[in-house]
Write a structure and sequence with these properties.
mainly alpha, elongated, 5 helices
């Protein structure tokens, strides 16, 4: 079964439904990087929506997709912090719409995403370790056992 994400620019998980944590993080970073030319306000809006989709995915039991959404939301937020618009508004007394939106997004990410992502990463690590132990030490890393 292919799990399809509901936001543009995110890839479905592979047919066996398993990706390593490292692969999920890389996919999320790549997808966020593909949007780096968007305006800062668009990136912040996408970060909030992506975080909310992650919550929905986690609540539905789609843990890997939720983790990807959380990682992507954080990468989108980080992309905003490196924009010239944000840096210009960061200076004292020059706070504008991008700065204000960035701080609202940061509050949302800190209260919603970070605690869930930390917990979810621990759960996914346990699943990875379980998969690795089932595969056994003599099994070579392959895509089929999730280690390739």
């Amino acid at each position: 079964m292919v799990i399809v994400s509901s936001i543009p620019g995110t890839a479905p998980l592979p047919n066996d439904g398993y990706m390593s944590i490292a692969a999920i993080k890389k996919l999320a970073k790549d997808k966020a990087s593909s949007l780096k030319n968007a305006s800062p306000l668009s990136l912040l809006n996408a970060a909030r929506k992506t975080a909310d989709i992650g919550v929905s995915k986690e609540d539905a039991g789609e843990l890997q997709d939720a983790y990807q959404q959380y990682c992507q939301a954080l990468h989108l937020y980080e992309a905003v912090l490196s924009t010239s618009e944000y840096k210009a508004e960061e200076a004292a007394g020059k706070h504008g719409a991008v700065y204000a939106s960035a701080h609202e997004t940061l509050k949302h990410l800190h209260t919603t995403v970070v605690p869930r992502m930390t917990s979810l990463e621990s759960r996914l690590k346990m699943l990875e370790e379980s998969r690795a132990s089932v595969a056994g030490p003599s099994s070579p890393p392959t895509a089929a056992n999730g280690l390739g």
